[in-house]
Amino acid sequence: MEYGHWVEEQNRQTCELRTALNTQITDVELRILVDSGMSHYSDLFRMKARVAKTDVFYLMSGMWKTSAEHLFLSWIGGFRPSELLKLYLEICDEVCLAMLWFDELI
């Protein structure tokens, strides 16, 4: 199964689960849906294991990461997007002050 197909199937299963939670279904039916979702993630990890054996750098690219994995790897690696915002604000403050100072000279 290709990753793109896996994502499409995941979206379909997520919609099914949401629909099931909003309707009255039995515990057995809900268990079947949950087991199907767990099996689906198991397929993803099997695909990742196969890819890791051939090209680990491709596996670590953003396409293969779920949002939870992306968040965890970014956090553990020390990168936080909020740091970019802080840097941007510092640069903007310096530029704005320089522009104001330049305008006063003219």
Largest sheet report: none
Query: Average pLDDT value?
Result: 78
SSE topology string? HHHHH
- Which structural class do the helices and strands define? mainly alpha
Oligomer: single chain
Instruction: Detail the poorly predicted runs.
Output: none
Ends: how far apart?
A: 66 Å
Number of strands: 0
Q: Radius of gyration, Cα only, in angstroms?
A: 23 Å
Strand content: under 5%
Gross morphology: elongated
Helix content: over 70%
What's the helix count? Answer: 5
Structure, briefly:
The chain has helices at residues 3-22, 27-54, 56-59, 67-76, 81-105. The chain is mostly helical.
Keywords:
82% helix; 5 helices; mainly alpha; single chain; elongated; 106 residues
Polypeptide structure, described:
It is elongated and about 75 Å long. It starts with a helix and ends with a helix. The protein is built from 5 helices and no strands. With 106 residues, it is mainly alpha-helical. Helix 1 packs antiparallel against helix 2.
Topology:
Layout: H1 3-22, H2 27-54, H3 56-59, H4 67-76, H5 81-105
